[in-house]
Amino acid sequence: VSERAVPLAATPYRLTPPEPPRDVEARLLEDGGVAVSWEPSPSAGVPFYAVERSTADGRFVQVGDPLPPGIREFTDPTGGAGLSYRVVPIDGTGNPGPPSEAVTVRE
Q1: What letter does residue 92 receive in the DSSP assignment?
Q2: Whole-model pTM?
Q3: How far apart, in whole angstroms, are the C-alpha atoms of residue 61 and residue 69?
Q4: Closest Cα to residue 106, out of 47, 44, 25?
Q5: Model confidence pLDDT, tens digit, residues 43-68
Q6: DSSP secondary structure string for all residues of 36-56
């Protein structure tokens, strides 16, 4: 019995995580919510960003769904002063990169 070689197609994937986004800002809105904005990651081809908010015990949890790269602002209607936010780049395979530096909402 002879075996034939079957060509395989491979999709390259990023071996290093994308760099975090820059210039993250969080500002309190008149209605009590929080607007979080950022500049994109310097890494090319980052398809999504996730916004995370601090919890009472200091951990961060994602708020809302991941956002495509063309969107650079997220509104958290349940946010408020004293909370911290950070933005996480997510690569094409769904793996998160390192988060941005956290910013705290001031009154």
Answers
A1: T
A2: 0.84
A3: 20
A4: 25
A5: 988 999 999 999 989 899 999 999 99
A6: EEEEPPSSTT--EEEEEEE-T
